[in-house]
Structures are given as structure tokens and as C-alpha cells.
Amino acid sequence: MSNERLSEAQQRGVRELLRIAPVIDELGARFRAAGEQLALVGGSVRDALLGRLGPDLDFTTSARPEQVERLIAGWADAVWDIGREFGTIGARKGDWRIEITTFRAEAYDPDSRKPAVTYGDTLEGDLGRRDFTVNALAVKLPGTELVDPFGGLTDLAAGVLRTPGRPEDSFTDDPLRMMRAARFASQLRFAVAPEVVAAIRAMSDRITIVSAERVRDELVKLITGEDPRAGLELLVSTGLADQILPELPALRLEVDEHHRHKDVYEHSLTVLDQAIAMEDRIGSGGPDFVTRFAALLHDIGKPATRRFEGGGRVTFHHHEVKGAKLTAKRMRALRFASDQVNAVSRLVELHLRFHGYGGGEWTDSAVRRYVRDAGPLLDRLHVLTRADCTTRNRRKAAALQRTYDQLEERVARLTEEEELGRIRPDLDGNEIMELLGISAGPLVGRAWKFLLDLRLDQGPMDKDAVRAELLRWWQEQPESKA
Known about the structure:
Helix content is 53%, strand content 10%. It has helices spanning 2-19, 21-33, 43-50, 65-72, 123-128, 152-158, 167-173, 176-187, 194-203, 212-223, 228-238, 240-244, 264-277, 289-297, 302-305, 319-333, 338-350, 364-374, 378-387, 394-418, 429-436, 442-458, 463-475, and strands at residues 38-41, 56-61, 78-80, 88-93, 96-102, 104-107, 116-119, 138-141, 145-147, 160-161, 191-192, 307-308, 314-315. It has 4 domains: 2-158, Beta Polymerase, domain 2 (2-Layer Sandwich), CATH 3.30.460; 159-245, Hydrophobic Seed Protein (Orthogonal Bundle), CATH 1.10.110.30; 252-421, Hypothetical protein af1432; 424-481. Residues 264-384 form the HD domain.
């Protein structure tokens, strides 16, 4: 089987190299003419062997950055040097995005948050500094000579992540590589070698010297991979999650009586799996980080809200509110953008809203409020709420799904009739001030809120009726007597 897998990988690699030959051959010839070495390297070679090479091509070279710029000037359609301090020059050639990095050695000082970059002299030396053997592969250019000094091709065929040298040395050089192991377990569905797992477990606290932004980026790639559960389980089992996402391992001890799972941690991973299976409902065209992260974190408020009551009953009252606050706090610590923080925490806050309406006897008013509260997150909320049903009782699960089907049908009908996504009061601020004879200020906002609630409760109304209701409300306000 191993020989068969090797052969399949080699055949895929040849096909991909032939596909990109016009670009890599031209580029290789330019560097060779200048007396410099150039090789396709790392993830590009790995992905070519896996038959999944995208438009991003990574190269390594003996040339220094200023030489690289001169060599690709006039050949590339565009050139940029945003990565110059790391020895990298970027370019675009047609549909291909290219990064060319000088042979380098990269390592952290014990207390540094940024790697110190020094240039290397050989291709083999550069490959020896890479994170995993499957990324320590190169193809010399021009030509197709594979350079594999650490058995990366064999590990790739076997689907195993190993380090070129001792994992302890690799993770000392760059602690973020520990997270990359979890990320590749998710993206590539590769197993992590036992000695690598042991090193991560022993060194997990070293991840704290890495910047929050770099940790965040790896976490996003993990969550949006093909098998996030595998990567997350590695983070938790090795202690990495205790350092970067401590709310997740904290769920392991919290028995979730509502879903009859052994703990909230397992339930949360199952909800994530089920949300991924329904992602096509969102229409995002690919992995949806917001929905996935909300599914993972939707119950993180339970540990803080758990209460033991009579008869062995356990409750988690308002855990969705607590969870939303914890989610926002953790995401801000990881330097997520405000729009992502707001979206994920809002979904966590709303994830129980559906269950607040009992057996499904939804009034039109309740449907309007549900849609308004969800806003642009409605499709994601649909997915999260459906995914949150993990009961093993088939009859109960079927009943919940039928009830939610009915809710979505009601949403669709009312949306068509009333344009629910754009519900506003029937009078605007200027009309309110003119009718009540008041000037701009907080009172206008209160009146506007009254009219919005009226619209949500009653649906579309005649403007004369709306004015009459506003005047009735106004007569009940202390300010009307002043």
C-alpha cells in the first residue's frame, strides 16, 4: 500500500508540475542564467504531490532579496516587497501569486515574540529549518529534480506529520509550529507522529511568546480546515488550548444533561461537525469561520452558570449571555476584527432563542422579532440552531427539525409579505418630532422604539392608525404634561 501511495503522489506531482511548467521553467531559467539557485519549495511541492496545488507558488533561492527584485523585473506583472525583512519578495505573473524567499534560518530567542531571520547558504540547510518533513520538499528549477533529504515524500504518502530533526528543536526555533501541527491535522487529515505530540505536550506553554495575531491566523486556518475536530482535539490533549483557548478544555468537565452527552466538550465538537455539514445553507461558497467558531463556542458560558438543584437536576441559566461575553473577550484577546467578534458573539447569544418558543406556536410578532434580532446573521443562526440538536432520541430530534422547518417557512412567508429584513417604524424621526412637537433628543429615540415594537407586534399598519397609537403613547409620558 505504501508503494502504491508513493506512486500515486509522484504521478499527481508530475501532472501538477507540467501544469505550471510555463511559469516555473521561465523563472528557473532567469535565476540559473544569473548564477543563482531556485527551487519550488514547501507547501507548493506538498500540494502538487497531493494534487491540490492552488494559485500560490512558493520558491526559495540563493539570491538575496535585492537580486530577486532585479531578476523578476520586467518578467512579473507586479512586484511587492512587503516581506523584505523576512527575505521574501512577492510577485504576480498572470493568475499566479508568487513568493520568492532567500535561503534562511529562522529562530526565536527565548523571550522574543518575533523570529530573528538570517540568510542560509544551501537548499538542504533551508529545508532542514522547515516545520515538517512534508514541507521540507523542493523541486530544483529549471527541471524537475526532487530534493527530499528528510523522507517527506514517504511521510506524505503515509499521511504523517514529523519534523525534519528533533521536534523539541523545531518548536524551540518557532513555537507556532506546534499550532501548525494541529492546523495540518485539520487541513490535510494527517496523523501527528507520537514524538511530535509528546514534544507539544511538554512545550505547550512556549506558545505564549508568539504574537496573538499569528496564533489567531493559525486558529482560523484550523477551524476552516476539512477536519477541525482532529486539530482541536490535538490542541486540547496537548495543553495548547489551555494557553490560547482555555474556554474549550474547560467544557470537558461539565456534564450536559440537556443533550445527554457525556460532556459539553463532546457536544460542542458534534455541533461543529453538524454545522459544517450544513454550510451550503449559508451560501458563503466555502468554509464559514463565523458559523464554525460560534458552533464551537456556543456553550462556553455553561461552566460559569452551572447550578446544582434538587433531585440531581443541573441548570445553566443564561449561559448564552455569559457565553457571548466570554466569546467576545477571547476573540478580542486574539486580535480578531470587530465585525467577526460581534458576529460570533451575537450568534452565541442568540443560539437558544428558538427554544424559547415552546412547542413551535410562533406568533407573527415572535417571527418578526427573531428575524430582526438575527439581522444579517439569520442564515447562520438557522444552521447553528439546527446543528445544536445532538440528542440521540430520534423522535425528539425529528420533532425539533420539523418545528424548525415550520419556523423557516413562516420566516419565508412573512419576509415575502412584509420584507422582514428591512423592518422599520412606520414614521421616521422627522415625522415623530412634527407630530409630537418635540425637538431632537432621547425622547425621539424612545418614541421610535415604541413604534418599532408596535410594528413588530402588529405588522404593517395604516399611517393614521400609527399616528393615533403614537399620540396615545405620548399622552402617557410625563414629558407631555410639561
